[in-house]
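cron nightly-structures :: item 1 of 1
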Amino acid sequence: MKQVILLSMLSAGISHAGFEPWTNKDGKTAELDLVNVVDKDGEKAGEFKMRSGATVTLKTTDLSEESAAKLKAWQPPAAAVEAKPSVFDGTLDGNLERLDGKKLKKCDDATKPAKYYLFYYTASWCPPCRAFTPTLVEWYEKNKNDNFELVLITSDRDEAAMENYAAEKKMPWPQLKHRKAEDFKKNFQHGVRGIPSLIVCDLEGKNLGNFRGNLPGITELIKD
């Protein structure tokens, strides 16, 4: 009865990251965050977090057939890999933005890569850049993994142009703030003679080359 009451109390709530629908055997559904699965009284039981911060334990026999099967199939998330430091941390930390709708906003979810940074030198006024960017967007979304992160380094004349370019091309990657771009170019001499350029560096800052015309080469490089 306790579980039924708890599910009823939560069923009107709104789900968010980490929460998903779970249905009890009486057909009541609530959004709960499954944090662990244990053995209880000879059967599987889930330890769930509620939005209030309280927890509730539900056994497979408390759940609908579909939710019970989902509980039995649950696997704990893989342990997070500690990010390795890089020579770029001092410049990038706190200075990245990402497209949110049609606006660039502070990027708090940028991942620090395990092996490589890809620096995309580009600008909205550059026709070859505009032609290449959709291909790069498609490649990034298909191949993104923990081994690399791509950061855009703009050559646009102002922040508005940089933002409009990001929105038009639906760029999924983080971008260095416009006011930090020139300092980045001075501090890290990547030998860029024209744009677009796609420079691949390891975490020690070694320049592995301009891969603008060799996306398959990067794909091979970033494999696990």
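cron nightly-structures :: done
Residues 89-221 form a domain with the Glutaredoxin fold (CATH 3.40.30.10).
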